Amino acid sequence: MKNNKRSDLAKREELTAYKLLLPALIILLVIAIYPLGQVFYTSLTDRQFASGQETEFIGFDNYRRLLSVTVQKLEPVIDETTNHPILDNETGDFVYERPIDVLPREPIRYREYRTFTIMGNRYVLGATDVDFIEAIKNTVVFTVISVFLELILGLGIALVVNSNFKGKGITRTAMLIPWAVITVVSARMWEWMLAPNRTGMFNMLLDRFDLIENNIAFLSNSSFQLPAMIAVDVWKTTPFMALLLLAGLQTIPEELYEAASIDGAGPVKQFLSITFPLLKPAMAVALIFRTLDALRVFDVFQVLLGQSQYSMATYNYFQLIGNRNMGLASAIGVIIFIIIFGFAIIYIKSLGVEMDETS
Predict the structure, then answer these.
(1) Which of 217, 232, 252, 307 could cysteine-pair with 196, CB 3.0–4.6 Å?
(2) Where do the TM regions start and end (predicted)?
């Protein structure tokens, strides 16, 4: 009888729990799952944005157009009279076939993305959408470098402001100023500082210290564009990383450091044995938040570079608004989502922040 009563009580409690969760599940379904499912479906069609054109289901054609790549070997051009490879008089290297002559054109046309040499052989990497492959590269490089620098700098700042010193409150407030500035405003500020003339602060400083002969076009020269974007993002977002890590530092009990000091552990030993292990959950949250933001970076690239260099998000915008290709833009959004999800799983696994059964 007691077991039956407990069973009935457990069932009623379970039913009550489901009833309490139902409103939240409905809201989640409406504002998250349904739109995400709609994007997945649209990515499988040729739907046009703001168009009366009839939409057709095309399967994975959008993904094939975005992600199809091929590698083809380039053979040296043979001189018909001597039957030997032709040498370039300027470089002293062989004259190779043109990439356009070896890249496939059917059923999908490939364009040259990169040529490279491995073990003396020349190859060409072709892609059906060169701009999107370049956008993926730009976004991943931007994300990895900027998030790594923000983690290192943010951890250093968090350790400093977590210590006791005079003016700690003012320092913590001042630390958040770059993060509080609207991203578009900060991008315009950096645009002026990176200007390719004497009005640009960086060119002025480099010129004053005789480090350059000619002004550097940071936002026009492809070699400096991505480093400039990384610098802008690191300046803007390092305070946010420091704030999250500071919150994690303040949850670590002081008694642990006192006990470690009594045992003779120095600052480095305390950091490696106490601070870093206990800071891993906060670090994982900070990395996931920052990586999510960095992988879908839009405003900095759009304001400073326009269409000269794409991130995945700005290329998505270009396809949706510029080309009105809603199906292709939806496929790009799905790819961004998958990449972000992959990074989140990697962080959680590598930092070991899974919840144990005993926790």
Answers:
(1) 217
(2) 20-41, 140-161, 326-348
